[in-house]
């Protein structure tokens, strides 16, 4: 453990117990008693109100008002942090090992009453974790570091659903997690504009010697929500897509990560969206197939024809 970890551990122990001797602290942390004295002096010098009492029942303790300071989390805050950590791990958070260490430290130095309460609220709360991909975790870590330090990257990126790989330089502005996938918003030196890239389609990346300056008012969340549905390699005119269906299917389509932000009008059993021709010919037919006969495409004819083609191809594939 580092010096900072040891000093924080001493604070937690003094918070959870009324009084501790230097020997008890040294044994708990497995460090020399003289080291404990140095850490106590350093904490006092930084303004922590530690009281030292000599004698048979003496030891170190904190002033009562200090144990109530926001430096320490109450039970509800600890519970929320543990719950949030489970969601982060489900999303494939790239620093899960550090997160696990922080949560373990939190549990180790809370008092027994709070630990029991946290356990009661944790046994009935869980998240199913997606399979961990070590390669994706490595890429996410490098992207996060590059966003923070303004490193320009060279990436090998798989475009669409094909096998085409393009090499390009990007200035990564921010990571975002959306409906089970990680995306990076970045300025693309190839397209000369800000674009979003699916992280799981980045096959390789490396730092360049260049650094960049992020626009001061850039918001990755705002950019992503405004642009994810309409991005393509070329600026295209948008085509009206009208779909009719039962209310449950229509609601589900409106909440879809891709289609939801392209909808311009909807009713109980009808939606009107505007999409690019590229989306209509590639992605849209495939996710519409899962709704079967619960929906009907009214227009454009291009989408209906593509649905027929995709369905026929599947039929032929499984018949042969």
TrEMBL record:
InterPro entries membership: CBASS_pafABC_assoc_protein, HTH_11, WH-like_DNA-bd_sf, WH_DNA-bd_sf, WYL_dom
Superkingdom as given in the UniProt entry: Bacteria
Domain Helix-turn-helix type: 8-60
Domain WYL: 139-205
Name of the protein in question: HTH domain protein
